[in-house]
């Protein structure tokens, strides 16, 4: 098994609602997709046994930013961005529990209005025989498998 890191620009991501790409030197591959539209979604289908979502936590001193995560149509977690006075990059917002081996779809939904949510990349544990899909976007990065498991929610 191996960890595959997939940038937010990968063509396998399906965004609905109002999303925009913002460049930044601290994000993976130089940017992230952001939205402040309540009900906006991002879907990503992968073949593996778990997945995690990472993003940028912007300067958020007054508004709760809430996002909900589902796997294969079943709610799997919620993330509420803590109030902070600075920006934090490459922060884990969700990690699934152990999934059955096979194809799964991650569904991210924004539950807040007028507060920026920034999706930077996902990491999933791929099956040994699974090759990352090729697309017109950057090739997913493969990293060594983790030595320990993590909680299903941040």
From TrEMBL:
Residues 132-154 are annotated as: Disordered. It comes from the Eukaryota. This is Uncharacterized protein.
């Amino acid at each position: 098994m191996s960890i595959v890191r997939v940038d937010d620009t990968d063509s396998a991501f399906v965004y609905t609602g109002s999303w925009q790409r913002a460049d930044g030197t601290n994000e993976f591959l130089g940017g992230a997709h952001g939205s402040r539209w309540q009900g906006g979604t991002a879907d990503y289908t992968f073949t593996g046994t778990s997945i995690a979502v990472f993003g940028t936590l912007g300067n958020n001193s007054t508004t709760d930013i809430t996002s909900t995560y589902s796997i294969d149509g079943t709610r799997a977690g919620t993330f509420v961005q803590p109030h902070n006075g600075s920006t934090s990059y490459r922060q884990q917002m969700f990690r699934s529990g152990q999934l059955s081996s096979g194809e799964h779809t991650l569904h991210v939904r924004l539950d807040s209005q007028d507060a920026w949510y920034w999706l930077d990349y996902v990491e999933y544990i791929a099956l040994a025989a699974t090759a990352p899909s090729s697309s017109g976007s950057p090739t997913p990065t493969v990293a060594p498998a983790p030595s320990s498991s993590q909680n299903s929610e941040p």
